[in-house]
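Thread: quick sanity check before group meeting

JM: Hey all, I'm pulling together slides for Thursday and realized we never actually wrote out the predicted structure for the chain we discussed last week. Dropping the sequence here so it's in one place. If anyone has concerns about the input, flag it before I start.
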Amino acid sequence: MSNDLAWILNDALKVPEARHAILLSADGILRAHSDGISRDEADRQAAALSGLQSISRSTAEFIGDSESPWRQTLVEFGNGFIFLVAAGPGAYLAVSATQNVDMEIITFRMQQLVRQLGKELTSPPRRNADHSV
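JM (edit): ok, ran it. Output follows.
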């Protein structure tokens, strides 16, 4: 995995009290990580956060609309938070932060990054190669 998108994820860490950021696929594959987290730890977290997203999505019926699209999950711990948001088709952005983070600022910044990531993750459609001899 190249970590070409780390520069975008590092922008999330400009919010005071933000710690780490990772971009993952729906199946738990790490796509990119910020500089402050090791590749091994980011891989482990990507797998776990994929499961968390899946569980969150499966509880849509609890709000009375099982077809409602999942948008984000917030997990609060004694010493911090994990923010997990949709970042495009089959991609999710996760940011961890201390308990002192301004939740409004970090979620706003994450939405800005999602828009930026959408542009970076979009590639032009493939054209069929002419294989005639």
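AS: nice. The longest helix spans residues 39-58. The first strand starts at residue 18 and ends at 25.
JM: adding both to the slides.
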